[in-house]
Amino acid sequence: MKRKIYYRIFKGRWPVYILLLLLGVLLGRVFFHSGGHEDSAGHQHAGEEKVEIWTCSMHPQIRMTEPGKCPICGMDLIPLVSGGTVHHDHDAVHLSREAAELANVHTTRVAAGDPAGEIRLYGMVQLDERLLQSQVSHVSGRIEKLFVNFTGETVTAGQKLAEIYSPELVTAQQELLETAGTRQIQPLLYEASREKLRHLKLTDDQISAIENSGTIISSFTVVSNTSGTVISRRVSTGDYVSRGTVLYDIAGLSRVWLMLDAYESDLPFIRTGQQVSFRVEAVPGRDFSGTVAFVDPLIDPLTRVAGVRVDVGNRSGMLKPGMFATGSLVSDMAAYRNSIVVPKSAVLWTGKRSIVYVKDPQADEPVFRLREVKLGPAIGNAWVITGGLAEGEEIVTRGTFSVDAAAQLEGKPSMMNRTESGGPGESAEASEPAGIRDMRSMPLPGDSRSEVKNRVVSRVFVRQLTDVLEHYLLVKNALVLDDPDKAGQEASGLRQALDRTDMNLLTGDDHVIWMDLSKRISDGLSVLSGSGDLERQRKGFQLVSDNLYTAIRTFGLADKTVYYQYCPMYDNDRGGYWLSEDEAVRNPYFGNMMLTCGETKEKLSY
Hints:
Blueprint: H1 2-44, E1 50-55, E2 78-85, E3 92-94, H2 97-102, E4 106-109, E5 112-113, E6 117-127, E7 132-136, E8 141-146, E9 154-155, E10 160-165, H3 167-180, H4 187-199, H5 204-213, E11 219-223, E12 228-233, E13 240-241, E14 246-251, E15 255-263, E16 275-280, E17 288-295, E18 305-313, E19 324-331, E20 339-343, E21 348-349, E22 354-359, E23 367-379, E24 382-387, E25 394-398, H6 400-409, H7 434-441, H8 449-480, H9 484-500, H10 508-529, H11 534-555, E26 561-567, H12 570-573, E27 576-580, E28 599-605
Helix pairs in contact: 3-4, 7-8, 8-9, 8-11, 9-10, 10-11
């Protein structure tokens, strides 16, 4: 009877017992099996998580942890690494090996060495002042005849230059003949008459010949006392001259001087005895050389340059005074020995600070951290680093902008911002007027935040570039008027406008393009403002014009129309371009000589 009762009870509640049994097994796995696994595996992988990384095929610096659209171009993201490890480091930029290869990121281990840099200088061939002589008349009288009639003629020492009829010389000879008869009685008068003729540059043989023959010479022959080239003829036949009057200027051209302009930043690396190689346009393809003989100890307060004199041999006569020359010298930069030198492509320069990306030596995958460095002088395509890097560290030398772009997109320290929170390291955006920051925050349909930012920044830079153009046009108008002093003054204003352009407003390829163009414009300004010579200024203006045109075509202008004009006859028929605010041609390369020579090649309206 009891057995039947138990059977009935169990038969009615057996589903409940089965559920309790399953619940007990599940709780056991949670408290025992899962807990033990976390102690072993969970402890081992603390701080890491397995994720799938998504990137853009066109912009490999983009890395996302979930699929979506590329924030730059809008393309669908593609999976890059499955099961990769994400390190939680807020200051470092992480790239997978595949992403680094796609972005063409290369690194180099830096080392200390003795840098040697090339310095380019501009100047002009001049006469060697030590070989310049003036041929003067030693008697007063009238020019009867000139044997050398034109400038540029070559003469040798002892060659006849001119004949002068001199009453003074006739009187002196008469005195000699009179005292010669009484020389036994009055020897002092005799010697005085001979000495008077010597002062008139007659030789003892000539004096003795006059005395013996008793014949008075009416004309005095002027002979050259040096060999060289006549660079100036001061008199003509029939002119009356006094004793000491300059008849000819004669210069020896077997040696010449190359006078170069050196700016303050170049002077520490220039010293006497250095070899200088240079070229002139009149002899293309040939290198000349000379030795630095003198560096001017004073800086010109207007041009801010010091003169560097190079002694050059010129036996061939190819070098002619007045030729423009471009020189270069290699400095061993003794003050920067044992310094680190890095390629220019490794350094991102914002105008206020310079940065590189240093690779983390402990990371398995490419991990880079921003580092501010101090720049020394530039040597060709490299920078000398005076602080911020240690020998043996590995830095990004190619693809630096790709790494920096990844940092910007992730909100990490980058070229544009030092920290995420502002303060002492606030970003370039934080220092801008509030109105621009407000415009950046305004959403535009179909545009990402980064695209809005780039568009507004471009407008700011374009206004700055337009200001550069306005000052350029003032220089152009001064050259049209053949006014070198005015051109030099306006060139100073143009340089100030160029210095006011903010390189921080440009990123990526635009930043690199403007770095190169602004450097070339600055080089042209150095030539333009460093000399009061009109032809030399026009050479510098040509370099400024070519690169400013490229900048305008690249970045545009702010509500401005300019005309790109061309003169085919400038620079020995090589031609020269310039920008003008008027369609009517007013030639800055020839001025009043050929004011309307040229044509309009292009109209640029923005």
